[in-house]
Amino acid sequence: MDSTPSSEIVYEIPMLFQVYKDGRVERFRKHDFVPPSDNPVTGVRSKDVIIVPENNVTVRLYLPKITQNDQKFPLLVYLHGGGFAIESAFSTYYDSYLHSVAAETNVFAISVEYRLAPEHKIPSCYDDSWAVMKWVAQHANGKQGTEPWLKSHADFSRVFLAGDSAGANIAHNMMMRASVDEDKLGDGLKLVGMALVHPYFGNNGPDRIWSYCCPENPNTDDPRFNPAAHPSLLSKLICSKILICTGEKDFIRDRGWTYYEALKKCGWKGEVEIKETEGEEHVFHLVTPTCDKAKALMKWLADFFQQSS
């Protein structure tokens, strides 16, 4: 057995990663890379744009099939899940899903590639995602943005945030940041709503992911991690509609419901709806995207993005 210092494990989170004494990080699930493409069947086109080169913050744009030259679509900024520590906007897992989202809900989707913990501690993921929000806002405010797809086909009066698991957590925090410091994004961007799928807002008791990945505040009452414990902040959300999706057998289901109840009681003036998938576990729709219940969840999202405009 190798007993050298470099092989000694100092921290481990099952299914996510382990950290060795010499600082190396080994992930238990490594993601692949799928290049952007044009799909002749669905008509969805995708491409990558680098936002912050020094931090490798990049987005993948998904433009639905265009039926007229000046056609504009609701704009969706999507944050992938993975416990802040695994997965990628460019993996087969998420590229396939975001392609389906664009095709089936008819939104212009922006999928965010942010830096991962534990090498990049929280708030890196939030800072990277906020840099993307500011980049989008440059196009909405008409002067600095240079991405032609956004300039031609994004409806900045109908902007949504969404994500699954830790990505839903990041989406909430982007909406929260825009709400308490609204002028940073300018007036041209209207944040209409959020769709939070199986959101990761911790669970009852200590959380080993958050405590390790966020050393600046490892406590699980941090408003970024447990927003329901801070109703005065929740009441400031500027969006008008929120959809929460939970799974009956999801190990973090209860916190999704707690968030829902907190929204209803905190004084926020918007409309919140929660939908639960019976008999399903965490992010089942990514694991089995063609099953009937995953299709139903996609229909919930489509109705939300189109009817909330």
From TrEMBL:
Question: Gene3D superfamilies this protein is in?
Answer: alpha/beta hydrolase (3.40.50.1820)
Q: Which organism is it from?
A: Nicotiana tabacum (Common tobacco)
Q: What GO terms are given for molecular function?
A: hydrolase activity
Catalytic residues per the record? Answer: 165
Protein name per its UniProtKB record: Carboxylesterase 12
Domain Alpha/beta hydrolase fold-3 per the UniProt entry, residue ranges: 76-285
Q: Does the keyword Hydrolase apply?
A: yes
- Span-the-membrane segments of this chain are none
Any idea which UniProt keywords this protein has?
A: Hydrolase
The record's comment on protein family reads:
Belongs to the 'GDXG' lipolytic enzyme family.
Q: List the PANTHER family.
A: ARYLACETAMIDE DEACETYLASE, CARBOXYLESTERASE 12-RELATED
Q: Which domain of life is it from?
A: Eukaryota
- Name a Pfam family for this protein: Abhydrolase_3
